[in-house]
Amino acid sequence: MEITCKINGKIYTDTINPSEFLIDFLRRNGLVSVKRGCETSNCGLCSVLINGKVSLSCSVLAASVVDKEILTLEGLGEESLRIGMLMAAEGTEQCGYCSPGFIMSVISMKNNLKDPSEENIKQYLAGNLCRCSGYEGQMRAIKNYLKDGKNE
To answer: What residue numbers bound the domain in which 66 lies?
Structure first.
């Protein structure tokens, strides 16, 4: 089956297997920031934005994104670098494997919640797992990012 969607501002038309998951479609097209983790919708490593909402690409069929807009870490540019630098400054970059999923969730939260509380942040990020840290560094980095938007 042929699908057309917009990924990081570029139109993609490709032939897919109807049972192909979005993560496989994205990685096949060179978007390797989308990580493969649990493949059971529990870890958040494969997070992308679909029409501005965070989604787990391991549980979304590629066929369902026809005419939709997908954003991956590669499409964030400087924004992802700012968040990543804040996370590193807080000591969260031990292995970095979870960072793309966290960053995508933070971008979605920033775009969809106005002035989130700490409880809102925790709820929004509940599906993002990190095996290296206790999440305190991520929380500090996210609060700093949301606080001023400049992330200096």
So the answer is: 2-74
